[in-house]
From TrEMBL:
Organism: Clostridium sartagoforme
Name of protein: Uncharacterized protein
């Protein structure tokens, strides 16, 4: 019981999460560009992006750059790590008071959108799809060369 009392529960930050609507998204080269509606990232102290494995819940840090209402996520270092499973995008925003997790969603009419892009490796492609409820899912696909052509 003493160990529990040693913990000051008031110092444990409150962590909340919610969905944040994306007005536009692009998968270009080895970057995912997300533009948000009515959301200014300049007012936030710290922005971190993680890719969360849907099956194992493993988190991979993804370098990113925030400006105004858009976020550019660099996927280059994650090329070979995302081939077995799908990943959801988790955005962590921190200010002086708390840390909030956001899950980007697209609630547009066309929810069956799928995007592919090439990576620096000739045999890998990034794949982005939208689920029925508008959540973004990322993975890489290994492309095997056709030896017959």
């Amino acid at each position: 019981m003493e160990k529990y009392n040693e913990l000051n529960t008031l110092n444990i930050p409150y962590l909340s999460s919610s969905e944040k609507e994306v007005s536009n998204f692009r998968l270009k080269d080895e970057s995912l560009i997300l533009s948000f509606k009515d959301f200014n990232l300049k007012t936030v102290k710290n922005v971190s992006v993680y890719l969360k494995n849907i099956k194992t819940r493993e988190l991979l840090f993804a370098p990113s750059k925030a400006s105004n209402n858009s976020l550019v996520i660099n996927l280059k270092d994650l090329n070979k790590l995302c081939t077995d499973y799908e990943y959801s995008i988790v955005i962590s925003l921190e200010n002086e008071l708390n840390k909030i997790l956001y899950f980007p969603v697209n609630k547009s009419i066309n929810l069956s959108q799928e995007l592919f892009t090439n990576s620096s490796s000739d045999n890998l492609k990034w794949y982005l799809r939208l689920t029925n409820n508008g959540k973004l899912r990322l993975s890489t696909i290994v492309v095997f060369p056709n030896k017959n052509s």
